[in-house]
Fold this protein.
Amino acid sequence: GYTEPEYEITLSSEIGGKISEIILAEGSNIDKGNVVLEIDTGTLKQRISAAKRKIKASEATLKANKKSLDVSKKVLEGTLEQELIAAKANLKLAEKNLSIAQNLAKNNFSSELEIAKYNSEFENAKVRLAILENQQNYNSELDLENNIASLENAKYDLENSKVILANLENDLTNSKIVSPVSGKLENLFYDKGELISANTPVANILGLEKIKLVVKIPQSEIMSVEVGNTVLITLDNGEKYEGLVNKISSIANQSTRTFDVEILIDNKSGFLKGGMTAEAVINTNIAKAFAISPAHLIVSDNGDLFVKIVKDSKVFMKKVALIKSIKDKVYISGLEDNSILLTVGQGFVSENEVVNYKLESEL
């Protein structure tokens, strides 16, 4: 297989401008949160201050408009009613004055001119009351509507100013390009003083604390590989490492009919690089087993495997399972530790037979 960084991150600038400072050089080790470079902000700080002042002014305007609206509502609710009370009282007074003048005129104490004057005041009072009773207070209503419109405009101006401030502050934050991960700063694509546009890649970071080894497993063997299997890795120079299966591809390569298997290797020393070739031995289906000669196996009529052991000087048939077979020995499971296996002469004794024996080490 071949090695790759655990991850590769490309940093991009979210705003455009001139690079004012390069903080870290290519090849530097970088921690999460480190600033890689800074972009000149120009008048951005002054614009932020101006936006904050505008927000304060908008808040004051909004407060004043709310007050004006409250006053308009109170005026609209109270003016017409008060004017009607006053008009009725005025009409009553005019009627009283006219009645007095008419009574005085009967006794020649009042002139026709005075009667005409009081009659005119009486008629005017009736007209005024009729107007108030049949019309709305349009001026107050118009004032109310204007104040509602002014309040909505003030709300819009305030919210718009807040959005502008948030965008300016976001631009100020984005003027410092910060690494979201720890790793190695592999490449910087720009130098100090260069102009860059928004959404432009400026650097890439490699994750090398762990290295990913990618090996190709034939489809005939992929079913025995599981995530978490331990792996022995040998580099071309003979260096050995241990790793774990981290990911198994779900789709085979159409041309080779193999599956990519990713193995993670600790690389705190930093020795391993991307693109190195290595051999990986994946440990699958691990089981404890004893190695014996195949001549010591007994096959029953139904194909089960047995061996003969001795316990308390008696022969017993013990069923075993074949784990692995190589040229001159087999690996079997099913025996307890310290079991005594009959070898020489085992073909001439039967189960439950009492035997004398010697261990191979005693011969």
